[in-house]
Amino acid sequence: MADYSNKLYHQLEQETGIQTGYIRTGSVFLAQTQDRLISLKRINSRLNVIGIPSEIISPKKVAELHPLLNVHDLVGAMHVPEDAVVSSADVALALASAASQNGVQIYDRTSILHVMVKKGQVTAVETDKGQIECQYFVNCAGQWAYELGLSNEEPVSIPLHACEHFYLLTRPLETPLRSNTPTVVDADGRIFIRNWQGGILSGGFEKNPKPIFTEGKNQLEIQNLQEDWDHFEPLLSSLLRRMPDLETLEILKLVNCPETFTPDMRCIMGESPSVQGYFVLAGMNSAGLSFGGGAGRYLAEWMVHGYPSENIWELDLKRFGALQSSRTFLRHRVMEVMPLLYDLKVPRWDFQTGRQLRTSPLYDRLDAQGARWMEKHGFERPKYFVPPDKDLLALEQSKTFYKPDWFDIVESEVKCCKEAVCVIDMSSFTKFEITSAGDQALEVLQYLFSNDLDVPVGHIVHTGMLNQAGGYENDCSIARLGKRSFFMISPTDQQVHCWAWLKKHMPEDSNLLLEDVTWKYTALNLIGPRAVDVLSELSYAPMTPDHFPSLFCKEMSVGYANGIRVMSMTHTGEPGFMLYIPIEYALHVYNEVMSVGQKYGIRNAGYYALRSLRIEKFFAFWGQDLNTLTTPLECGRESWVKLEKGMDFIGRDALLQQKQNGVYKRLTMFILDDHDTDLDLWPWWGEPIYRNGQYAGKTTSSAYSYTLERHVCLGFVHNFSEDTGEEQVVTADFINRGEYEIDIAGHRFQAKAKLYPVTSLFTHKRRKDDVELSDLHGK
Amino acid sequence: MSSTLPFWILKNSARNSIATLQGGRRLYSRCASNRNKARWRLFSQVPGTGKISVPCSDVALQKAYRHTSTEEDDFQLQLNPQQVNEVLRAGELAHKTLGLVSGVPNSVLRFESNQLAANSPVEDRRGIASCLQTNGLMFGIFDGHGGHACAQAVSERLFYYVAVSLMSQQTLEQMEGAMESMKPLLPILHWLKHPGDSIYKDVTSVHLDHLRVYWQELLDLHMEMGLNIKEALMHSFQRLDSDISLEVQAPLEDEMTRNLSLQVAFSGATACMAHVDGVHLHVANAGDCRAILGVQEDNGMWSCLPLTCDHNAWNPAELSRLKREHPESEDRTVIVDHRLLGVLMPCRAFGDVQLKWSKDLQHSVLERGFDTEALNIYQFTPPHYYTPPYLTAEPEVTYHRLRPQDKFLVLASDGLWDVLGNEEVVRLVVEHLAEVGQHKPDLAQRPSKLGLMQSLLLQRKDQGRHTADQNAATRLIRHAIGTNEYGEMELERLTAMLTLPEDLARMYRDDITVTVVYFNADSIDAYYKGG
């Protein structure tokens, strides 16, 4: 996005004739620590593959680039020569005038009173100067976007919150800085420094931000927005440490200009889930200028075509629900988010504020057993369980790009899943029930979902919910509970998005009943070969594959509790069962499972174990590996699509065409070969993939496979033409015939590419061996 | 007693005489430290039995750190300095007054106030308000005993009586006119309150009726300009006390109001208030709260000018007044053991009708079927009760014309004065002024260079770390409870004092309420120059 902004601002001056102050200065990102340097190296390798020149440079080189910098405490830096500076006010003016030239009318000094909505569709905007009719409305009210959203009759929750943000302006230096002096970002010192009219402009993201306007637009607070030198002191000290020569520089002023922050450091854009035509673009986390151009483009595409040209689920308004809209939550969370902007971003970081909002009824029980928690969509999920005799590092010390301290803990959990049985609380998954009086439920779902749902009652189907282009809007499992009722399980953060999508695409007059039952069920995942034994002992029912085949769903009793939905799937490819338990039975069932399971070696496990298991089994996950731009054919899931059945469904045409033409990218599994788990940097996601030395794509997720004793990465392989860079068809042959390397922070590791999970081949073979052996014994 | 209390407390309590007094149906044993004197000897408090409990946010906060002595299991004594500050600061109230009051430079620069409870709920009250129909700021400290009801009532009502007394005939006529025609009244007072301060909403209409009767009587006096300030203060104190006394004698319909007025009348409160209008400072005092003036002479030396006399047994003038007012035969019984009739420490107070009414009147009122047990009222006739009233609310009024060298006024309840002497208090406030002045090197003359700015900011930060209190009243309270026998500040002692179990706290310290009023030497100066 920043790249597009850069190009846009560059052209703007030519197009409009308005000075934007665009100067290509380049920028230097300093590293005071090795960890910071690793993080810069990772960014560097990503920038390079998308065609933005950048390089890692030594402190000595830094001193050459910028005459005033103190480089003694630096370990390195990243130089991005094409970065530019502009003047924000001038850019805004230029954009406005360019827009006017193209026929856009701009009303200034006009305030919005109300957005008019009829039948869930935006119709007009009521302003203090009268009504303006419109089909689309974009809320880009910045820090007031939250309030404006809530002022709607049907409130649109836009979770963001403002913090005071300070920057310093100085008078020119005695020998004014050259206009092309690079911008300096010293994240370890929490500051940025750029030249400004011969002097400098410097601000930062302090450790103790001051949230503001929690109660909304408040005249008193606006007037009180004054300089706060005492608050700025740490940043000033940091500035003078970086540039000691500035001591004698004269202060012009300290500007207090509130910025808006979101609960997850990413901006918010897209269409409201409840009001059609109501778009949002806000919460730029202080990067409004650099991302503005790109974000504007995506939003425009979204409004015109119905979807943007890139996957921007991570920015989609629908990743949030009303649950993130509490003022208290936002106030606390932004106080964590703002300093985080310049904190080291390490893998598996969890927010510390705004926690314990949604919890499973087993939360206390699991917590007492050593659970460590992560949060998704406000829901607490166990990461792993720390045994009583073990201590983990404190939060700050645990930050690492290398092997984490929980490695052994997760290993034993994985081992237990493989050899005995583990229980994982997976209550956070989004659960919908769809029923109808007649056959509409099936009809509608057949159109909305790509796999054939007309299966016998009690069967579970993995299916995508595709868009017109065949891309995954959602990847879910649907159990057919009855002829006319279906139970749908989707990823946790789909709660808002999937609901909105279903509502939008379901015929209005149908008697379809869609219910969000997420809160009604506690989900326990029993993973492992002994899960069968535990369940059959608790239910007095045979659970062997003959009686309870894979991907099967049955309501049965577990312990004293009746009506437990038992499904033979585990989301990992391992044998086992998911139990969907009405919440009032949760504790009972959990206690029973644990006590009966004792003799089978049962233990608690968390999501890290689950993740390791699913990635080694090549289970792609929506939101990480899959997104709205990936199709089933691109990840080897053709068998999960009813292309041959002559039934229409959303995305069918696109898929048929793709089947004919071939795919341009393919989800592939990589096994790192020469990677030392103990000493080398761990892969995370977003690492460039090289095929025969040529850039071929990026990884989407990774995990250590305790079975293979190797790291496994998932990622898409493209076939970029060597001459033109154009994307070409990717075939299985193309994948198989390549030599692959994965670039982790500038270091390339050899990797084996697989299109099918290796382990399943192994296990299949092993089972065959077992059978043969047993046959032998039988004879 | 808990074994985790620091040794010095045990040491102290061992030294204390433990007195067990038999009173009515209750045994009340009490460790009376030499310094610390409970007002009513025979009136024990049962926390939480009063029907009306006053919600008090600062008390609630402190409760987080407090507990009763019976909960010894989770007795965690250690507060970190931060928590100590939190507890101490909960009652803080500070305000900067406007530079001009109706065109005249205001002689009051700002005030700082704070309150720390020992009783649960706290029995001290404070009031700060400006008169809207006449000039002047009023500051009051009200120290309740035998419950908080009387102090609460006096803190709410006294200022209205004063304000009304000061009104001109014309203003009073306007007020009366508005009442008659049911129009909104002229605003009388502007209160400056701590968020924790509460009022009894239900009874204010009754109070207003009585206030109206008072101004109607004032109207009948036909005085053009209203009373002078001294008279006004005198009248207001006595009028309010007599209203309190009459309200409970008059038949009241509403049970709630009736119970409340009974509680007010049967509990007591001493009061000390200051009225500042330009250079005219009037202090009215009834009881043992105290007001002193911090004076800086031209040579820079600080001294203390007391503006009140404590009305207690140590005051010869009070002794002789009492002896004068009662027959000679009572000379030996009117003050016993330094207490009025052997029960009450102060010799003047609001309420306390047990020491004002005749026995017959007391009986006839209480026999009207009040549930005295539930109301926490102890009916009791002291020995040698022959010629009531023994107690009066008549204040002693002092006038002081403010001079440029008068820098500040400290008003405080006896909880402070029991522990700190006048000179010590002045010294602490002066120290505070010096530190605050030095702390935060001024940013007004902003250095223009980044380097200078940085060193200035670092200085400010550094000093911010050492001065714990921005509020002089907090500093006084901190020293009052945290100073050891050798006059040194001891954090351990401070922490222990603040973590005393709720039911023991009152034995080691009293409620403390302090208000420090700073004068603006410039505007006082201007007043003199302007004539």
TrEMBL record, chain A:
Residues 665-753 form the Aminomethyltransferase C-terminal domain. It holds the Pfam family DAO. Residues 2-302 form the FAD dependent oxidoreductase domain. It is found in: Mitochondrion matrix. Residues 362-645 form the GCVT N-terminal domain. Residues 305-360 form the FAD dependent oxidoreductase central domain. It comes from the Eukaryota. Keywords: Mitochondrion, Pyruvate, Transit peptide. InterPro entries: FAD-dep_OxRdtase, FAD/NAD-bd_sf, FAO_M, GcvT/YgfZ/DmdA, GcvT/YgfZ_C, GcvT_C, GCVT_N, TrmE/GcvT-like. GO terms for cellular component: mitochondrial matrix. Belongs to the GcvT family. Decreases the sensitivity of PDP1 to magnesium ions, and this inhibition is reversed by the polyamine spermine. Heterodimer of a catalytic (PDP1) and a regulatory (PDPR) subunit. This is Pyruvate dehydrogenase phosphatase regulatory subunit, mitochondrial. It comes from Odobenus rosmarus divergens (Pacific walrus).
From TrEMBL, chain B:
GO terms for cellular component: mitochondrion. InterPro entries: PP2C, PP2C_BS, PPM-type-like_dom_sf, PPM-type_phosphatase-like_dom. GO terms for molecular function: [pyruvate dehydrogenase (acetyl-transferring)]-phosphatase activity; metal ion binding. It is found in: Mitochondrion. Keywords: Hydrolase, Magnesium, Manganese, Metal-binding, Mitochondrion, Protein phosphatase, Pyruvate, Transit peptide. It is an enzyme of class 3 (hydrolase). Its EC number is 3.1.3.43. The gene is PDP2. The keyword Transit peptide applies. It comes from Odobenus rosmarus divergens (Pacific walrus). Gene3D superfamilies: PPM-type phosphatase domain. It catalyses: O-phospho-L-seryl-[pyruvate dehydrogenase E1 alpha subunit] + H2O = L-seryl-[pyruvate dehydrogenase E1 alpha subunit] + phosphate. Residues 108-519 form the PPM-type phosphatase domain. This is [Pyruvate dehydrogenase [acetyl-transferring]]-phosphatase 2, mitochondrial. CDD domains: PP2Cc. Belongs to the PP2C family. Its cofactor is Mg(2+). Mitochondrial enzyme that catalyzes the dephosphorylation and concomitant reactivation of the alpha subunit of the E1 component of the pyruvate dehydrogenase complex (PDC), thereby stimulating the conversion of pyruvate into acetyl-CoA. Acts as a crucial regulator of T cell metabolism and function, with a particular focus on T-helper Th17.
